């Protein structure tokens, strides 16, 4: 991937993250009203804060994406293809189970219902994204896409889960999943274009 292609992917992902955070933040404010505005200036600055926060979330997403690409490259180099696929399946399932149950049973600090709901939502998004990835490429993309959308996304959101605030979780997770989905669905187009040129 050339620097020009990477820059284009970086900026598009940042824009998507910023817009997603703006929509999610305004939606949370509209339905939950969790921020009290002191004046007109606060009301005008709030969308800018949301855009900046979304851009930061997108950068965090991109760090996870390139970490995944490095891990996948190493995994393919070390293990046989079938073995690496099994390892990805096991790691994705373990990450999902950790998200849904481990924190409640070991830490006892969060709601089991919220964790299970979040885990099911991430699984559903991962399956949908993997379906579209396979449809646009081939069946070999199924397991890596599921692994990235489940295991890597869960690792990326661990920090916000420790806060324990539902609004913060929603505000971080939704733009992050959107950025992750965009990157994994766009990767083959970027690399194909690079091969053609």
TrEMBL record:
InterPro entries: KinB-signalling_activ
Lineage: Bacteria, Bacillati, Bacillota, Bacilli, Bacillales
SMART domains: KbaA
Organism annotation: Paenibacillus ihbetae
Keywords: Membrane, Transmembrane, Transmembrane helix
Transmembrane segments: 9-31, 43-71, 83-104, 116-134, 141-163, 169-187
Pfam families assigned: KbaA
Full protein name: KinB signaling pathway activation protein
Signal peptide segment: none
